[in-house]
Amino acid sequence: MTTLAPPQFEQIAEIAMGRWGLNLTDRKMQLVSNRLAKFLRKSRFNDVQEYLEHLEAEADEEDMLVFFDILSTNVTSFFREHQHFDCLEREFYTPLAQENLILPRRRIRMWSAACSNGAEPYSMAIHAWEHLSNLDSWDFKILATDLSNSAIEEARRGVYPYKMVENLERPLLKRHFLRGRGKQAKMVRVAPHVRGLVTVGRLNLMDPWPVRGPFDVIFCRNVMIYFDKPTRQRLVARLYDLLRGGGLLAVGSAETLSGLDSQFRTVEPSFYVK
């Protein structure tokens, strides 16, 4: 039996909030139930209750990360929400080119704080190659983090179905991706010069962060929609502290800092400057 009872969903919601800050409302109950049913059919557990008892009594960190994968949604694409990349070009790369923005030691640091399967940070890296002249002469690094095991593994591989990139402009595709052959003909790999800019790691945004910054750009998109207001408030304050003065923050197009106590200034909807 895999039907999720309301008390079981409440237990799941408490775990999700306590560990990851996820705010699972009753509207998510059917979605969670369906995902649990799919997981349980392939697991050693007989039903939801047995699985929940395992999580509460004897689960290790890897077990909990599997549980997080069940609850989380990793939807992404290359150059998703393209307006953010347009704004990044206008507010960051153009001032650099015009020498209206001077960065000491020619050092640039960016963070994809919820990188999912890697499409976002690799898009940021491709964007840099396209808009920053003499990139090889810069100390340029992108940190890509996520909590999901499956997403991190995919991001580290940097291999994707061709359909994920088929709508990109052909010159962009040719410069920055390698097409598979034979049995891999329907796959692409991110080219080494793009992969070399990106470091992928696991990070729970609710935990202490081992990163120090300062960052010039942070993309933390389509994350806060899962958090309640106090959690969003804390997260935004921590992101603010890690940005240099004049640094840029992008959140999801369905997200806003409106209603939060924030010192960020709006550049355009869902794009902010410190």
How would you summarize this macromolecular structure in one to three sentences?
This protein has 274 residues and is α/β, with parallel strands linked by helices. Helix content is 41%, strand content 18%.
Percent strand equals 15-25%
Major β-sheet profile = 7 strands, mixed
CATH structural class of the largest domain: Alpha Beta
Secondary-structure-based class equals alpha/beta
Low-confidence stretches: none
Q: H/E series, N to C?
A: HHHHHEHEHEHEEHEEHEEE
Q: Percentage of helical residues?
A: 40-55%
Tally of discrete structural domains: 2
CATH architecture of the largest domain: 3-Layer(aba) Sandwich
Number of strands: 10
Please characterize this protein's 3D structure.
The chain has 274 residues and is an alpha/beta fold. The chain starts with 5 loop residues before the first helix and ends with a strand. The radius of gyration is 20 Å and the shape is globular. Helices cover 41% and strands 18% of the residues.
Task: Set out the fold topology.
Elements: H1 6-20, H2 29-41, H3 48-57, H4 61-71, H5 82-97, E1 107-112, H6 119-131, E2 139-146, H7 149-157, E3 159-161, H8 170-176, E4 177-179, E5 187-190, H9 192-195, E6 198-202, E7 215-219, H10 229-242, E8 243-250, E9 265-268, E10 271-273
Parallel strand pairs: 1-2, 1-7, 2-6, 7-8
Antiparallel strand pairs: 3-5, 4-5, 8-10, 9-10
Helix pairs in contact: 5-6
